[in-house]
Specification:
Elements lengths: L10 H27 L19 H9 L3 E2 L2 E4 L9 E6 L6 E7 L12 E3 L2 E6 L17 E5 L5 E6 L6 H13 L12
Antiparallel strand pairs: 1-2, 2-3, 3-4, 4-8, 5-6, 6-7, 7-8
């Protein structure tokens, strides 16, 4: 008896239907994996601080040149109204954001003889938690650190959450070196 003449569908149609069903299941699984891996990020809230040079050409040039990624952190949008001269990056997984501010005043603790750390030709000064306003340093004492690039025409601050590692400062140093001309650091006199 010929299977093509009976009441059963042709074998090719059955194979095509089975392949289509398997492809649909694989598509759903891949979409679910991608959705779990890349959750939608909420905008980052950044409070305003005195930043008299935030609208300067130097800060605008730096903000335009900032990378989309700093280590394991991706560029994030900011909650409106966002302060001028600010940017943020969020980790792929849950965690605190990196916050950049451009055009701030010289940190109060940056005085003659203050220790600097040079990363890719950029001189950085680490601010103690009492050294600047809230949200820039570590008022809660939870391990955040804030570093100021002090050898450029504008002060640039990067606040790092605990465990962020050296890659964000290394990557940002390269961007700062390529975007902003160096100048001699100008620490305040010791009081």
């Amino acid at each position: 008896m010929n299977s093509q003449t009976g009441d059963n569908p042709p074998r090719a149609v059955l194979i095509a239907a089975l392949a289509l069903a398997v492809a649909g299941i694989i598509g759903v699984l891949v979409a679910a994996f991608v959705m779990q891996r890349s959750p939608a990020q909420d905008p980052v809230a950044v409070s305003g601080l005195p930043a008299p040079q935030a609208d300067s050409p130097e800060c605008r040039a730096l903000l335009d040149a900032l990378p989309d990624e700093l280590g394991g952190y991706r560029r994030a949008s900011l909650v409106d109204p966002a302060p001028p001269g600010a940017a943020a990056w969020q980790p792929d997984e849950a965690g605190e954001a990196l916050i950049l501010r451009c055009g701030l005043d010289r940190p109060a603790d940056f005085v003659v003889g203050a220790p600097l750390q040079v990363v890719d030709t950029v001189s950085w000064f680490r601010v103690d938690e009492a050294g600047v306003g809230e949200d820039v340093a570590d008022p809660a004492g939870d391990g955040r650190s804030t570093w100021f690039a002090v050898d450029r025409p504008v002060y640039v601050a990067l606040t790092l959450p605990p465990g962020s590692g050296p890659t964000p400062i290394q990557t940002l140093s390269k961007t700062i070196a390529e975007t902003l001309h160096p100048r001699q650091p100008d620490p305040a006199p010791v009081r």
